[in-house]
User: Fold this.
Amino acid sequence: MTKDDITDLLEEKHNVLFKWIEKQPKEIWEKGPEGKWTTGQQIQHLVNSIQLLNNALSYPKFLLKYKFGTCNRETRNYKSVAENYQKKLIENQDRARVFNQKLKKPTLKERESLLTKLQIQSKKLQYKTKKISDKNLDSLVIPHPLMGKMTIREIIMWTGHHTEHHTETLTMTYGEDL
Assistant:
């Protein structure tokens, strides 16, 4: 995927999520199925995830190279990244469950602020994606807690899929439209 394709993907996946949220009653923000995240927690998780990536991309490239190394393989395409993530989720359900229990529940008062943060972080990531050289996108790696080391291009593509994954989770829980 080119940088423009990736930024378009991020924009599309976030727009779908925001449109879904706009149609939902505010009451579902703090409610969720037993043992599952609330809508607010899903959004908090996405904000945290993108913010961590944006922070990592703010470091000087030589520091990323020194700390995490470089890639010794071809960059995977979007479909491979998405399929690998789904596979890792299934293989690591217990690990994911423990990780998921730690996420605080945002209140309804925090809703607008959190949605604004998600929008800002998404736009920041799109901007940073366009500014990074193709060489750095494909050679520098960043560790993902579930997937291991990924090239920057892969982890940015994964971010699009990750947003889609959480949007699908929400629509399966609450329906396409309420």
